[in-house]
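Final report, Chapter 2: Outcomes

The project's central promise was a pipeline that accepts a single protein chain and returns its three-dimensional structure in a standardized token representation, suitable for archiving and comparison. That pipeline is now operational. To close this chapter, we reproduce one record exactly as it appears in the project archive, with the input sequence first and the structure output second.
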Amino acid sequence: MQDETVKLAPGEKARLQSEESKKMPAQDNHNRPAKTDNSDASHSPEGSLEKRAWEIRRRLENFLQGRDYNFNPDPEIVKSIIKAMAKRYQQFGADYCPCRRVVGDKEKDALIICPCVYHEQEVREDGHCHCQLFTKT
């Protein structure tokens, strides 16, 4: 048997892989249908991730008004946690706390949508929530 190695022009391998991936069915995450919403005009995963992170941050800033706790004073921690939350939104369709496990049960998973039901007690007792997004002021 002969080795049939084919030499591809630069960029041709990426084009072929792209075409092949279009033929394959979307992977199922925790028995959820793949998201098909292409409403983001940029069609850039990174762009839509950044947009979602910005939306989450604005929502949480509004939530924090008048509370006796705030975002972690370290902006890199806040940025990292919010970005992880945006990734979870892309994967699961909700702003789940990145420090807690999504189990696939709607009732149980609803408890970990940020701000999760556990955060107030954790901030009160520990000075910060589990993922350290929120800290006592």
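Archive annotation: Confidence is low (pLDDT under 50) at residues 1-9, 11-44.
This record, like all others produced under the grant, will remain available to the consortium after the project formally closes.
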